[in-house]
Amino acid sequence: MQYSLIIPAHDEADNLPPLLGEIRDLPESHRPIEIILVDDASRDRTAPLVADMIAADPTLRLVRLPARSGQSAAMLAGVRAARADWVATIDADGENDPADLPRLVDLALASGADLIGGLRQGRKSSWSKQMASRLANDVRRNVLKDECSDSACGLKLFRRAMLLQLPAFNGMHRFLPALVQIAGGQTRFIAVNDRPRRHGRSHYGNLGRAAQGLVDLWGVLWLKRRSLAKAVRAAKEGP
C-alpha cells in the first residue's frame, strides 16, 4: 500500500530529527511515499530545520500554517496536500512509535476498513493526563457508541477521500472514528506502543481540552442523529 504520512508540529524542532530517522528506518515495503511536516506556526526552528532536511530527503515536504490553528487544521492541511489515496498521521513529539505503522497498513489491507486507529498501551504521560484522557474516552464512547477506547491517539491510517468528506472543525481529530462511522465508513483498531515525550512539554492543558471536548461531543452527537448516510446507503435503483 502506498500512503502519505502527515506530522502536525508546533515547536517540536528537538523531537523531529530522531522521529524522521525512525520513519526512514521502516521496511521499504511499508515506508510512506512522502512525509508531510505541517508546521503550525512554530516559534522555534521547526520550519528552517525541515527546510534544510528536504535537500537530503526528496520524500520530505513542508506545509506551513501562517497562524497557530491547532492539530485538526494542521492535519487537514496535510491531508489536502497529500498525493496518496491513503494517509497516516503521527504525533511530532515522539510519543507514537513509527514501528507500529506497518501493522496499521497490514490491518487496513486485511480488513478493508476505511480507518485504522491506534490504541495506546502502557501510557507514559502524567497520571493527571491519563485520568483526564480515560474519562474523556469513556464519556465519548458511551455517548457516541464508536467502540473506540482511545480516539485521540495520534497514530491513524485512513482513506484520504473519506476524511476529506467529513465535516471540518477545530478538534475533529479527537472524533475521527465516530465521524467516519457517521459517514458510512468502517473502522478497526489495534494496540500500539506509547512512549514518553523526548523533549519539551505538552502544548495542551487538561481542563481546557476537557471543556472544549464536551462542547464538540454534543455537536458530533447531533450530527450522528441527523446524518443521512444510512438512508443514502440503503437506497436502491429500480422497482
TrEMBL record:
Gene3D superfamilies with a match to the protein in the record: Spore Coat Polysaccharide Biosynthesis Protein SpsA, Chain A
Single GO BP term: lipopolysaccharide biosynthetic process
Ranges of residues in domain Glycosyltransferase 2-like: 4-163
Species the sequence originates in: Hypericibacter terrae
Keyword Glycosyltransferase part of the UniProt annotation: yes
Any one GO MF annotation of this record: undecaprenyl-phosphate 4-deoxy-4-formamido-L-arabinose transferase activity
The UniProt record lists the keyword Mitochondrion: no
Keywords on record: Cell membrane, Glycosyltransferase, Lipopolysaccharide biosynthesis, Membrane, Transferase, Transmembrane, Transmembrane helix
Pfam families (UniProt xref): Glycos_transf_2 (PF00535)
Name of the protein described by the UniProt record: Dolichol-phosphate mannosyltransferase
GO terms under cellular component: plasma membrane
